[in-house]
Amino acid sequence: xxxxxxxxxxKTFTIILLILAGEAVxxxxxxxxxxxRPTFLDVFQLNNLELGTCFSMYGIVAFISYLFGGSLADxxxxxxxxxxxxxxxxxxxxVLATYPAYPVLQLLxxxxxxxxxxxxxxxxxxxxxxxGGSNRQGLAFGFLDGGRGLVAAGFGSLGVxxxxxxITSEIAEAVYSERKEAFRNVILITSAMVGxxxxxxxxxxxxxxxxxxxxxxxxxxxxxxxNYAIVIKIPTVWLLMVIILCAYVGYKITDVFSLYARxxxxxxxxESAQVGTYLxxxxxxxxxxxxxxxxxxxxxxxxILGFMVMxxxxxxxxxxxxxxxxxxxxxxxxxxxxxxxxxxRTLYFAALQEGYIPLAxxxxxxxxxxxxxxTPDIFMGPAMGYxxxxxxxxxxxxxxxxxxxxxxxxxxxxxxxxxxxTKSSSPTxxxxx
Length: 433
Known about the structure:
The structure is a single chain. It contains 17 helices and no strands. By secondary structure, it is mainly α. The model is unreliable at 211-218 and 426-433 (pLDDT under 50).
């Protein structure tokens, strides 16, 4: 039995490790390409559609992994799954640093779809839900995503620093080979840090006793099917699929913000990378703030507000009113859009409690919801790449943000339905069920 102070220290250390792991595993597949998109396209000799196809390969493998990885998280201890996922993801970074040919790069992204989703995703969500208990789901996921944003921003800032450190001439005059070598160092140092975080998780992440009560030593095929039968009968599960799908479209579109800064606002490579990094620093504030509000009010209300803000930001970018001479308004529009998008990073799974989804089948529920909710990993990369390449410059970006506006409307309708359904339902299930 833990004393009050030791229990508090244990809880604090646990969420810190989950935060570090929760973002570190996605740095190599996504954050580097998001922060350094113009550079990434240049050094790998890719166009936007080709990079989008790599993301799509990730999404296809992830699509299958969500389904089976959920059951895995209900069977094995999260720390084992999380640590192995970090080690294998870091190993992929070593391959990335060799600048593999395009077909190999596609296979690498498929490999990352397995390491980050099949092994990692549901385990992290379940561990965080256990940490939050019955009454702090918003705070738990607010800390998780806010902290993940801070970790991503830290990795992004470090990456920009390392990149600029190895550029000895003016960035505009830096030759291709110099930029390529600088970015290789960014990849290798990032990979080493991801592996180190895996070591920390393996040796220092401890299981909560309540987690042990909901983790079975093994799952029979019949038990797995029974869990899915329970989950698919819960109406809120289906609404969360739609809500997460629409919100995740917004998150995928943050991949093009640094490219927008380069192509429309005419920033240089380091300035555009800094835009992508500064954006990540907004995430902790939004994550914790929205999490606290969700616990004080209702998660579904925050989701409705999030879609309204996301829609406003999308319309500002889609309107075409922004340009190189309106840097302040560009940053303001960026802030508005990011607020709506990042709010959902907290709300996605904090809504499990409001939706009366039992803890014992959390992994299964997360896997099934994610199966549909994260399909933008499959189609948004190629869709954005096609729109950007078919209409170079600002018109292509406008088309991308009109797409976001459409999904925001659909998500808003689903969130309103979720609100009324949970408001009128009696809680037949609790976190301990």
